């Protein structure tokens, strides 16, 4: 009998009883064990990330899919609740757990200023504003809050932070960049410790439990350096300059244990980053010792060729060979799987390369605790929208005071809470969608009541005395302003929401309706102008007519934070994360340039002091 038991135990060890499931084993041993059990089909499945639209439990089971994403605005149902989201993600996870080896999926989403695809989530200021706040602890707390809201929906992975160093504000993604200054961007990588938790071992990918999410530093590398700020274009310069300007934040991100790195659509010296083996494998993986996985951007491998997808075999061959581990396909996944399978079977891509990719993906999944806790935790459901006070604090800190009084002896700010009648005007004064910008509910964002929050007008109304009459008119005529008997006016104008290429802009003027409102109001009454924009705009022609000017960037859902400051409950502390140029002809012009003649320099920001 004893012998029989011994034999059975021996037999179990021969079939290598699921060492990868044994939590007492070190992660590298679990990864190695699991990898050794996997077929090529299972490995290639792990490397495949598909869009939510294509994802069902049975698709995941059938193709051994390793990851699913929501693209911008891709939601299981309009205004889906946290419970609906979590049920959806858990349903996909069931498909993954039903496979032979039961390897969980990791679900990724662009939670880039809060969990911004989700209706009712807290929307934090976009990165350009957070760079102006310049507070590493603040962004860390925002990271932790965002992780909780993401976990509320059952999701375990965010494609954030963007650590682009935007060197030309004509770029449509400039608001996703903390600053033009690499050191300031680097200082903001504390958000990674907020999202993932503090890694106990420097440089080792880490996700600290079910209240944290895997992060992604993007877009490696040089995304913010393209010519004239053209999205996805070419960044030209020496290796030394690439390292000193655009690669710098990655050093810190890797130290902080960032789990993944996303590759940039852009090229460096004419070579698409998605095929740059030297920068991905030799530099990122070997020299910088990045141990997490490298992910492509959305159809990023397709865009290696011009036109996109012209030779998909080539795209798969050169991107995987370059060192990309997971491909954000995201739609034509059977084509991707078939192409990669045939390239491996024909010997064009080595099994070693596939194993490196899968090892990295599994490593992240193990560290994220997905094997032990593959499903959502319902105790986080109430986290959606639960961080509005933090967002309001962030708004206060992001505001940059650029001008206060036509004559510095007579400042306009802080504004009086007890004025008898004030005017609030402009396209962005009472418009939640406009103050949130792109990447809010939908990819491009949209004007209007797209989600929950407090508009700037509502914040003003909440703050002034009961006896103050607040009149709101979006675009008043100058005669109505003159005859209105106002003590002062607050004009809130700026850019419409946009994202990526749609935001590329060569003139950077204040849109005409906003410029008109500034002129008609400010010529008639004392005025504060609040600019809502993802970057500095050309303000020089309007500056003399304004009594005061505040750059509020893209503040997000908590407009109250603006009233908190302009009425003097808090002082300004923002320092511009970007150079304010006089005219677009000066661009690109950044802090440290030999020819530097700004309207307001990098780091500029006034205080009000006490009234
Ligand atoms: C950069 O933009 C120009 C103009 O749109 C285009 O012709 C060129 O192909 C782009 N270069 C890259 C590397 O994308
Ligand atoms: C597509 O790329 C593959 C791999 O580089 C190459 O062998 C093939 O000739 C290309 N096809 C065409 C039509 O150019
Ligand atoms: C994925 O979904 C897209 C959009 O609905 C569809 O066009 C595509 O055919 C789907 N892919 C597959 C492999 O079914
Ligand atoms: C949004 O809703 C508020 C409150 O119902 C309303 O006053 C406002 O006009 C709406 N804004 C837009 C842009 O539709
Ligand atoms: C500035 O560029 C934007 C984006 O291309 C365009 O929509 C707008 O009309 C331009 N404005 C002017 C004044 O040319």
TrEMBL record:
Belongs to the glycosyl hydrolase 3 family. GO terms for biological process: glucan catabolic process. Residues 1-17 form the signal peptide. Residues 399-607 form the Glycoside hydrolase family 3 C-terminal domain. This is beta-glucosidase. Residues 39-362 form the Glycoside hydrolase family 3 N-terminal domain. Its EC number is 3.2.1.21. Keywords: Glycosidase, Hydrolase, Signal. It comes from Selaginella moellendorffii (Spikemoss). It comes from the Eukaryota. It catalyses: Hydrolysis of terminal, non-reducing beta-D-glucosyl residues with release of beta-D-glucose. Pfam families: Glyco_hydro_3, Glyco_hydro_3_C. GO terms for molecular function: beta-glucosidase activity.
């Amino acid at each position: 009998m004893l012998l029989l038991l011994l034999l059975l135990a021996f037999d179990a060890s021969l079939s290598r009883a699921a060492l990868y499931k044994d939590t007492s084993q070190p992660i590298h041993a679990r990864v190695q064990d699991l990898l050794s059990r996997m077929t090529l089909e299972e490995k290639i499945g792990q490397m495949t990330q598909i869009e939510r639209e294509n994802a069902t439990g049975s698709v995941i089971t059938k193709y051994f899919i390793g990851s699913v994403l929501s693209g911008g605005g891709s939601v299981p149902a309009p205004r889906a609740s946290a419970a609906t989201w979590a049920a959806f993600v858990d349903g996909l996870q069931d498909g993954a757990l039903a496979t032979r080896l039961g390897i969980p999926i990791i679900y990724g989403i662009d939670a880039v200023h809060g969990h911004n695809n989700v209706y009712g989530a807290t929307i934090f200021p976009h990165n350009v504003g957070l760079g102006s706040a310049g507070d590493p602890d603040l962004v860390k707390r925002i990271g932790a809050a965002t992780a909780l809201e993401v976990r509320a929906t059952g999701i375990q992975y965010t494609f954030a932070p963007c650590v682009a160093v935007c060197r030309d504000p004509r770029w449509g993604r400039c608001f996703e960049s903390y600053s033009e200054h690499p050191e300031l961007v680097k200082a903001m990588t504390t958000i990674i410790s907020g999202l993932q938790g503090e890694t106990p071992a420097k440089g080792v990918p880490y996700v600290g439990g079910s209240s944290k999410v895997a992060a992604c530093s993007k877009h490696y590398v040089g995304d913010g350096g393209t010519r004239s700020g053209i999205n996805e274009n070419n960044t030209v310069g020496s290796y030394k300059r690439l390292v000193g300007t655009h690669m710098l934040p990655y050093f810190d991100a890797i130290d902080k244990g960032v789990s993944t790195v996303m590759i940039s659509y852009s090229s460096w010296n004419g070579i698409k980053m998605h095929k740059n083996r030297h920068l991905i494998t030799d530099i990122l993986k070997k020299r910088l010792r990045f141990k997490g996985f490298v992910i492509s951007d959305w159809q990023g491998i397709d865009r290696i060729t011009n036109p996109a997808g012209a030779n998909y075999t080539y795209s798969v061959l050169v991107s995987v060979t370059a060192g990309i581990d997971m491909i954000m396909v995201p739609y034509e996944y059977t084509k991707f799987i078939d192409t990669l399978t045939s390239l491996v079977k024909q010997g064009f891509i080595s099994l070693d390369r596939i194993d490196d990719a899968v090892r990295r993906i599994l490593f992240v999944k193990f560290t994220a605790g997905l094997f032990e806790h593959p499903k959502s935790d319902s105790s986080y459901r109430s986290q959606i929208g639960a961080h509005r006070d933090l967002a309001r604090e962030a708004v206060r800190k992001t505001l940059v005071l650029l001008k206060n009084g036509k004559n510095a002896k007579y400042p306009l700010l802080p504004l009086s809470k007890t004025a008898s009648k004030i005017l609030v005007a402009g396209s962005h004064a009472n418009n939640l969608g406009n103050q949130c910008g792109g990447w809010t509910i939908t990819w491009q964002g949209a004007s209007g009541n797209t989600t929950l929050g407090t508009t700037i007008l509502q914040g003003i109304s909440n703050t002034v005395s009961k006896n103050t009459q607040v009149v709101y008119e979006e675009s008043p005529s100058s005669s109505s302003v003159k005859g209105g008997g106002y003590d002062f006016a607050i004009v809130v104008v700026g850019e419409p929401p946009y994202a990526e290429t749609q935001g590329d802009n060569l003139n950077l003027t204040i849109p005409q309706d906003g410029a008109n409102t500034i002129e008609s109001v400010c010529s008639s009454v004392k005025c504060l102008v609040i600019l809502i924009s993802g970057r500095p705009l050309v303000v020089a022609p309007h500056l003399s007519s304004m009594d005061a000017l505040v750059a509020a960037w893209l503040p997000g859902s908590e407009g109250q934070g603006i009233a908190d400051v302009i009425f003097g409950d808090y002082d300004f502390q923002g320092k511009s994360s970007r150079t304010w140029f006089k005219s677009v002809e000066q661009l690109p012009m950044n802090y440290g340039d030999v020819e530097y003649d700004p309207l307001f320099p990098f780091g500029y920001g006034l205080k009000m002091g006490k009234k």
